[in-house]
Specification:
By secondary structure, this protein is of the alpha/beta class. It has two domains: 84 residues, Rossmann fold (3-Layer(aba) Sandwich), CATH 3.40.50; 128 residues, Rossmann fold (3-Layer(aba) Sandwich). It is built from ten helices and eleven strands. The strands form three sheets. Strands 1-11-8-7-5-6 form a six-stranded parallel beta sheet. A three-stranded parallel beta sheet has the order 3-2-4, with helices on both faces. The chain has a two-stranded antiparallel ribbon with strand order 9-10. The two termini are 28 Å apart.
């Protein structure tokens, strides 16, 4: 059976490390990092995600505020809120919970967030820095995957990584991270998507297989090379309420060398990286670290 890459346990360790760094920041500046969460509408899943993120902030000493807006809010009013938060010195980072209602253009809202407070790393400037190999804020889920692999001792350099999914939230930034020269990079990366032909042949060539396509139990044992490391980013709720990933965990765990569980794998790491990015934003705004330093925990 595969080794379980327990993201929940590791995220707890990282939170303790961040708690110590937050306290050191407070002792030096007399201030605490602050996260402003922006939630538009009343989507139950989004409400849960935001509540969990704010609770995590409180546990490590980061102050958080919730700006909850009606679903019918205008784009102009939402952009005005972004500008207000950009100018507020007590706000270190801004989190815009996605998805937004269809009448709002996500790209315009994300571009309105100051690059120095874009802790999700979704804005064009921070994505561009990642492409250039000089990341300021790395999107939280890809960063969580990279840190999980590193701290469990999974080799990355020289490995063939296959990523199922090409979103700017997971697939593309993760590919860029693992392609980087040096620390935790130097992989050969293949990105697959809905138009990829001979998909199973490609996935069976992977030393590390990352599933991030939003289809429950899509990856089956016959798609995985024996001994591969399998990272399941997906979170899907079945009609009976069961939460499963994009990987058929039971069958794949029989042949993989290591695998992440769902829940309890990548999800907790994503939240831990949000805390890391919020603290890093506060440090950058106080001149503590250079943009290219301390960009990843541990």
């Amino acid at each position: 059976m595969a080794k379980i890459l327990d993201g929940k346990r590791l995220a707890e360790e990282i939170r303790e490390e961040i708690r110590g760094r937050v306290q050191a920041f407070y002792e030096r500046t007399g201030k605490r990092p602050g996260l402003a969460a922006v939630l538009v509408g009343d989507n139950p899943a989004s409400q849960i995600y935001v509540r969990n993120k704010r609770r995590a902030c409180e546990q490590v000493g980061i102050v958080s505020w919730l700006h909850q807006l009606p679903a019918e809010v205008s784009e102009a009013d939402l952009v005005a809120l972004m500008r207000q938060l950009n100018e507020d010195p007590v706000v270190s980072g801004i989190l815009v919970q996605l998805p937004l209602p269809k009448h709002l253009r996500e790209d315009r809202i994300l571009e309105a967030v100051s690059p120095l407070k874009d802790i999700d790393g979704f804005g064009p400037e921070n994505l561009g820095l990642l492409v250039a190999g000089r990341p300021r804020f790395v999107p939280c889920t890809p960063l969580g995957v990279q840190v999980l692999l590193r701290r469990y001792g999974m080799p990355i350099a020289g490995q063939h990584v296959v990523i199922l999914g090409r979103s700017t939230i997971v697939g593309k930034p993760l590919a860029l991270l693992l392609l980087e020269k040096g620390r935790d990079g130097d992989a050969t990366v293949t990105v697959c998507h809905s138009r990829t032909q001979q998909l199973s042949e490609i996935t069976r060539s992977a030393d590390i297989l990352v599933a991030a396509i939003g289809q429950p139990r899509f990856v089956r044992a016959e798609m995985v090379k024996p001994g591969a490391v399998v990272v399941d980013v997906g979170i899907n709720r079945l009609p009976n309420g069961t939460i499963v990933g994009d990987v058929d965990h039971e069958s794949v765990a029989e042949i993989a060398s290591a695998i992440t569980p769902v829940p309890g794998g990548v999800g907790p790491m994503t939240v831990a990286m949000l805390l890391h990015n919020t603290l890093r934003a506060a440090e950058l705004q106080h001149g503590w670290v250079t943009p290219a330093a301390s960009d990843r925990p541990g």
